[in-house]
Amino acid sequence: MPPTRLHFQAEIELFRYGLVEMASLVLSQVERGVAAWETIDAAGAQEVIDADDQVDQRCADLDQKVFSLQLLEAPVAGDQRLLHVGLIAVIALERVGDLAVAIAQAAKSVRPEGA
Fold first, then answer.
1. Angle at 56 (CA atoms; ends 89, 97), nearest 5 degrees
2. Whole-angstrom Cα distance, residue 36 to residue 102?
3. Model-level pTM?
C-alpha cells in the first residue's frame, strides 16, 4: 500500500475514534439529562446545558475532518461512502445532544413538590 494510502487509513481510524468519543459524550449527556429530570436537579440540568458546547465543537471538528479528507485524499468510492455515513452519524449525534439539552431545560422548569 502506498504511503499516502497508509496516511489516509490512519486518518480514517482517527475519524472513527472521534465518532466513538462523540457518541460516548452524547450518551452521557442524555443519561445526565434524564437523571436531572427524574430527580428535579436544576444544577445537574445546567451542567448538561453547559456541556452542549463540547458536543457542538466535536461535531464541527468531525465535520471538518470529513471535508478535509474528501478534499485532500480523493477517497475511492468505498471510503467515500464510509465518510458520508460517518457525517450523517455525526449530525444525528449532534441532534441527540440537542435533545439532551431540551430534557435538561425541561428539568430546570419543573418545580419540586411543595414549592
1. 60
2. 12
3. 0.85
Q: Which three cell numbers stand for residue 76?
A: 475511492
pLDDT for 2: 62
Cell 474528501 belongs to 70
Helix axis angle, 42-73 relative to 77-109, nearest 10°? 160
| pLDDT tens column, 7-61 | 888 888 999 999 999 999 999 999 999 999 999 999 999 999 999 999 999 999 9
Are 98 and 56 in contact, with CB atoms under 8 Å apart? no
Rounded (10°) CA dihedral 66, 71, 77, 80: 10
Residue 86: exposed, middle, or buried by beta-carbon count in 10 A (0-12, 13-18, 19+)?
buried
Alpha carbon 68 to its chain's center: 18
Residue pointed to by grid coordinates 425541561: 106
